[in-house]
Amino acid sequence: xxxxxxxxxxxxxxxxxxxxxxxxxxxxxxxxxxxxxxxxxxxxxxxxxxxxxxxxxxxxxxxxxxxxxxxxxxxxxxxxxxxxxxxxxxxxxxxxxxxxxxxxxxxxxxxxxxxxxxxxxxxxxxxxxxxxxxxxxxxxxxxxxxxxxxxxxxxxxxxxxxxxxxxxxxxxxxxxxxxxxxxxxxxxxxxxxxxxxxxxxxxxxxxxxxxxxxxxxxxxxxxxxxxxxxxxxxxxxxxxxxxxxxxxxxxxxxxxxxxxxxxxxxxxxxxxxxxxxxxxxxxxxxxxxxxxxxxxxxxxx
Amino acid sequence: xxxxxxxxxxxxxxxxxxxxxxxxxxxxxxxxxxxxxxxxxxxxxxxxxxxxxxxxxxxxxxxxxxxxxxxxxxxxxxxxxxxxxxxxxxxxxxxxxxxxxxxxxxxxxxxxxxxxxxxxxxxxxxxxxxxxxxxxxxxxxxxxxxxxxxxxxxxxxxxxxxxxxxxxxxxxxxxxxxxxxxxxxxxxxxxxxxxxxxxxxxxxxxxxxxxxxxxxxxxxxxxxxxxxxxxxxxxxxxxxxxxxxxxxxxxxxxxxxxxxxxxxxxxxxxxxxxxxxxxxxxxxxxxxxxxxxxxxxxxxxxxxxxxxxxxxxxxxxxxxxxxxxxxxx
Lengths: 301, 329
Known about the structure:
Chain A is of the alpha/beta class. Chain A contains nine helices and seven strands, in the order ααβααβαβββααβαβα. In chain A, strands 1-2-3-7-6 form a five-stranded parallel sheet, with helices on both faces. Chain A has a two-stranded antiparallel ribbon with strand order 4-5.
């Protein structure tokens, strides 16, 4: 059982709210990872509000001053994983690999009541725990993920330990498609398949683009589904903006195999004004010439 | 001097019985890293990770987050050079108690440059939260797992395999961040680590006969490096200091001693003996020790340079040196 139950329309609305909030941040702060918010808003809201079985948040509702880096004398700092509730055998864990999606995570936590909406005001503000690219003190972050391709291995190691212990809860990972170019990701899928990790579920935001352009032009990774199956995973492809399909995909049987849900998305989804910039949506700034149009769009959202 | 065989293998099995949360990860070098026998005794605690070290390091971080204590086994080069970002971001930043058991430190392999961990200490000393131990003999190998277990954070061990001398009494285990005083004296302060300590013991035995008074400290904790005995030895050294290590002379033991001299304003000369900004090639241990000048004769030449004296030592005098036969407890 999840801590709270949400209807599909409520989760859809949450995705719209996330987009609106991050567009607001983009306009207010001079830029943000807005394309990632557009592509992943349904994926992340579906995970938090329709898929993950998490206990009630143990994290602070308010933003916190940066609690210091971990070290021998600082291991009890407030961790990002607290927002996912207590670690219990029947509860899920959720690892975010593309740390650039931090704003989407913070906003999704706000949508499901795990952090206060006012906390978002501290996003990317010096001295606070709500950085633009998070680490494991940031709300919603189980680990330090900014260097791409490592989180999948950490999550798989976690799933391995949980499987050995007999936990029934699963380990979920959010992955982005560009980082699948990292060799370590394939090492991780190879090992997760070898250790028959049927408790590992990976949602991939396949938005087909990365910093330098279309993924197929920067370094092709397709056909992803066939490659993943060849590595021993169960793989399904869904419309990453279809909330019901995203939730349904989590129920795909994957006995003794990791499950990968390839979520095909559009980095301009919900904000058509961005479409003409594709595939260059890694970090969105809105100049004076477009400010009025974006502000009007935001107001109408 | 007694030679012990496969000490780590025996020790980690003994130790594993006491610590059920300890698990081993192997990068397909289990039989080369004295861990195959552990896998036979504890098959359910031995995880084969294949030739995929990046995944192995981050995977260990995941296991560790769930309360297991991972011990990664492969050659040292593959635990820092190939995987530095994984070591830093997956393990060191969150300060997880993952232990890296890195075999073949420095020139300890005929495998050549790709297998020789010659700058691991330099690279890892500047990684925050990391603790580094360098094994000098069988007694240290027998005590290092207990020491590593007490460290709140990641540990890198420069481990020795197969035939290893027992230079120190078995009932005198290594201590955390505390040098072992091997000789007392005020002319020269000598710091040695790892396999170079045996060379240094030969050299000091001969030099003492020639009238040189040496404060010889064997260092097995390379990070942290704050044992007050080090600064005390430097301060009283009439002619200056020598550091000898199985590692490049930039960033290792010699550099740590240099920092101590400079930060303490101790104003002593230091001669650093080690690999002089070079890679090596594959050959036997004794050949490489002599070729790259990590041996007792190089140390004696350094003592001559520091003191301005000639001691007239030749190799035959070194070979006559016999150490006490310490036995296992």
